[in-house]
Amino acid sequence: MRRLGVAVLLCALVLQIGCGSQIFITKGSANYKSSCVAINDKGNYYDVVIDYSKGLNHKQVGEQFAKGILKVIPDYEEIIDSYIAENIPEIYYEKSFQRVEDIKPQLKKEYIDEIEGMAEVFSGGKSNVRMDKKLSKDEVYLFNLFLDVVKGSQCSFVSVYGSRSSTNKTITGRSLDWYGGDRNQLPRIQAVITIKNPGSSICSIGYMGFLGVITGFNDSKVFAAIQESPVGTPYESTGKRSYALDLREGLENKKTLNEAAEFMMDSSKQYAANHLIVFSDPTMSKVLENNISGVSCTGGHVKRALRSSDSKLNSGIDWGIKDAIACVNSFLLYGNHDNHTINGYNTRRWQYIKEQFADDTAKTPEDIKKLMSYCNRSPSPFSDTKYLYNKATLNTILFQPDTLSLEVYFFPRNTLKVPVKPTFEKIKVF
Amino acid sequence: MVDSGISVVILCVSVAVILVTIFKIAVLIVELFKKERQFEINGLKGCISFILSSGLLAGIGYCLYHVPYILLKGASWNMVDKMGPGYVKNSVIYISAVIVVLYLYFILTSHFIKKRYIDFHDNGIKYDK
Predict the structure, then answer these.
(1) Which ipTM did the prediction report?
(2) Which one of A268, A303, A383, B32 is at 20 to 30 Å from A22 when CA atoms are compared?
(3) Tens digits of per-residue pLDDT, B84-93?
(4) CB pairs under 8 A between A and B
(5) Which residues partner with A304 through β-bridges?
(6) Nearest Cα to Cα of residue A10 among B76, B50, B55
(7) Could you tell me the domains of chain A?
């Protein structure tokens, strides 16, 4: 009977799934300050200010940023290295660097200098070794080009403005749904990064060492965020650009929503991945559908175009809600590839969002926050739920461009357990 | 919890198999208390059989543990838990429970066998399992 008991226990041990939700965190300094980079640990995220008005070049800034990262997160290299390993199986590891090499020539020189400045501080040098707890130069590039080379993020976006907003100004909610890592790697490095350039500033809600913009806004009150929209066509990276780094350039240099959108849908900029970019300014919101490849529903060509609340949509999709717009992970514009109606992950969330507008009333910031953070009894896996808050939600943002009012829920840093009710923090910007 | 057709089928079949097997185990335990069964190790053959079957069970457990890695392009259980689909985790749990219960029944019936009886009148041996 004893041997039998041992055999059963062995079985149970082999099958144990995700035991232990607490994460051990290597403690670093609470803050770092150099001539152009300041980092403060705010408990659940890092507040970073990068100031280009101090006269340092981009390479020097990259170096100082990396030194600061290692001071506050001593095991940063291990975190990123392990995250890369979890997302890229061994057989694809070397191939992923080829994709990086394809995209690198199209990157803006200043961003290359920043990335290489950071890479010089990390200990991996030029040797790419998977799971060696070090970051090589190529792995730093790989992390910064993750969305272009590895996989994108699944997200949700809802925005009201004009008559649909209780303030008559834009109120925007946006969730980032992404796998945070077996050891909570992404929540451990989540950051609000303010970049002060001469003449403009941008704020990026992202990750330490990730220089592109996943979600961000500038001091001209233009908000933008990226969302994946895969169509299933073969991947091709030759001659392609990075949409996260281009979005950063757009926010740094453009003053209006339309200018930033035009910058991102410029046909001379070709990207490896189909994607969406959601935009908000104080008076309206729109969605840029960068449908680069795929099959048009109408027999023509897919296109890169802006969708607004009254745009004509593909057959089988309806919206019809004035002064409000939403976005999941699909193209909706008439004539674009239909990756919406065939995909339950998208149709469930879309239907849920529409139902929240059935009462035809103006929405307050609290209404949008509730819409973004409600999950019934407890959060479900991303692909199983209709709610915008789910187990994969790494952050949820409530942003009002007119007043630059920012509230963010960040996934807890020190546990894998998903909060039933997300807690938002008010963050002062600029 | 149950969110796909495959998951429902696996759940129904698993519950049926587990219930039947638990009933059979209960009958075996009753027979044990009535002293209708006795423990027999079957010597070296029995030991080898037990070791090999345990090894096989561990191997099956190992394969089931790596289902996300094999079927979902290198994913982990944590990734499946967060991103879904939820029915993968549930289905593996149901299948694991069936395997454990069946293995338990196999071990019990292998080592707790019904007593032999000798019919003196026939000078034969009847052996019941």
Answers:
(1) 0.81
(2) A383
(3) 888 888 888 9
(4) 80
(5) A290
(6) B55
(7) 31-148 (no CATH), 152-182+220-427 (3.60.60.10)
